[in-house]
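Help needed: design a sequence for this.
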């Protein structure tokens, strides 16, 4: 298998120099920026709310065993079933077992990054189980044969012309169909799928310990329909989604909405507390609690706060690297700053440690995070671990070692003439500096020399 780092660099370069791609991304993200800025202004004392959210998540993660056991107990008391899955393989196997036991051959699925993480669609289709994505953005990328591009807006990389061309090809819609016409078609198309599906699969925004409930927030109503029509509802949720109380939702739901889409609240917010009892629509509900590397993050106290992420996507939207290279370049479920923090821990530093270098360390991600995750600091810690594990390139080690030697000696910085310094930069630094950045030229006089001259003149 080709080196992931080299593939990442190649794909990043390709996307960064794709003018059409950049134009679409910058246009779509500019609309988000305007909406998010407006939404945040409607929250009084935002900084206090962020600190409170951080505190609740911090406490919840330190008490995660207690909270999960409480959730399981209360959810089962409500008539639901909980299955613990150590990894992606066991989670998928349990889901297949559930579907096979009910002889289910078609499922509808609402937006869920956790199911993307375990590659559920591909695995189910190999077992001849049809999977229909019902979120509009997810439906678009599914028809395009792609993975979601963004945590919140899966098809943010596509223009309206791209979408209309896709639906003309796939469903013979008129060319240049408007977004309204595409949306109306998808709505009508999916209604039949909801009616005919025998199982619905959703994710969870939060798991509520004290009520044993699953909290799901959405804007389209497709998650509600995925739960309401089928006889089996399967929830796939990471263990970090648990929070202590339903009362905490009055904080987390507005924060998620404003930072995710700029809304004060999303259109639909549901609390589902177990299987339906009696009645015509009697159904079963099962929650798959997924670890899949999360306990590895919990074990690193320096990174534990990263599991407090509420998946609003705000850190992606402000990241200058993400805006240039796009979501698919990362080749991971979780892209952007949060993905660069957690993926090397969850999937291995050797294969994914390079993602921690896909950052300017400008701190914008930390500044915008609604639960105050210190993302840029965690990226630096990842880089430190990457180097200490001996995974950095020998050329990088050579460069850093010798740069340190030079920069630590004032006499070396001051002695050579600027022409000599520029030759050193050209032959020893240019390659590491990169082919697409202009190498700066050394000044004729160092700062130290200018300082001495200025102070000497003052004395005179």
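Sure. Designed sequence:
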């Amino acid at each position: 298998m080709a080196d992931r780092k080299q593939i990442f660099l190649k794909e990043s370069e390709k996307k960064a120099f794709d003018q059409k791609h950049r134009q679409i991304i910058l246009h779509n993200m500019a609309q988000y920026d305007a909406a998010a800025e407006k939404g945040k202004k409607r929250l009084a004392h935002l900084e206090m709310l962020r600190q409170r959210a951080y505190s609740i998540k911090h406490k919840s993660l330190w008490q995660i065993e207690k909270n999960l056991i409480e959730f399981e107990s209360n959810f089962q008391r409500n008539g639901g079933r909980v299955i613990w899955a150590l990894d992606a393989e066991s989670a998928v196997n349990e889901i297949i077992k559930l579907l096979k036991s009910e002889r289910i051959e078609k499922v509808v699925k609402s937006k869920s990054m956790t199911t993307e993480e375990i590659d559920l669609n591909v695995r189910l289709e190999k077992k001849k189980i049809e999977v229909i994505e019902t979120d509009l953005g997810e439906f678009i990328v599914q028809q395009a044969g792609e993975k979601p591009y963004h945590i919140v807006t899966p098809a943010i990389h596509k223009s309206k012309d791209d979408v209309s061309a896709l639906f003309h090809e796939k469903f013979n819609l008129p060319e240049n169909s408007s977004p309204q016409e595409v949306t109306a078609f998808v709505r009508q198309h999916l209604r039949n799928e909801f009616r005919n599906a025998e199982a619905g699969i959703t994710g969870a925004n939060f798991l509520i310990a004290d009520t044993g409930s699953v909290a799901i927030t959405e804007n389209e109503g497709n998650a509600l329909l995925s739960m309401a029509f089928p006889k089996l509802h399967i929830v796939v949720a990471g263990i970090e989604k648990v929070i202590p109380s339903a009362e905490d939702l009055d904080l987390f739901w507005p924060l998620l909405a404003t930072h995710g889409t700029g809304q004060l609240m999303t259109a639909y917010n549901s609390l589902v507390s177990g299987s339906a009892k009696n009645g015509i629509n009697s159904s079963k509900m099962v929650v798959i609690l997924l670890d899949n590397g999360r306990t590895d993050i919990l074990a690193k106290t320096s990174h534990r706060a990263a599991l407090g992420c509420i998946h609003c996507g705000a850190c992606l939207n402000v990241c200058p690297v993400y805006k240039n290279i796009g979501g698919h370049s990362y080749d991971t479920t979780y892209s952007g700053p949060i993905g660069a923090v957690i993926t090397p821990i969850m999937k291995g530093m050797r294969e994914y440690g390079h993602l921690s270098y896909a950052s300017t360390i400008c701190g914008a991600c930390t500044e915008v995070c609604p639960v105050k995750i210190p993302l840029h600091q965690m990226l630096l810690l990842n880089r430190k671990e990457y180097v200490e594990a001996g995974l950095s390139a020998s050329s990088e080690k050579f460069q850093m070692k010798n740069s340190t030697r030079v920069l630590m000696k004032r006499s070396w910085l001051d002695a050579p003439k600027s022409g000599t310094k520029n030759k050193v930069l050209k032959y020893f630094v240019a390659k590491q500096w990169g082919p697409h950045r202009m190498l700066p030229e050394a000044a004729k006089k160092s700062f130290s020399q200018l300082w001495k001259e200025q102070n000497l003149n003052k004395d005179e």
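The mean pLDDT is 92.
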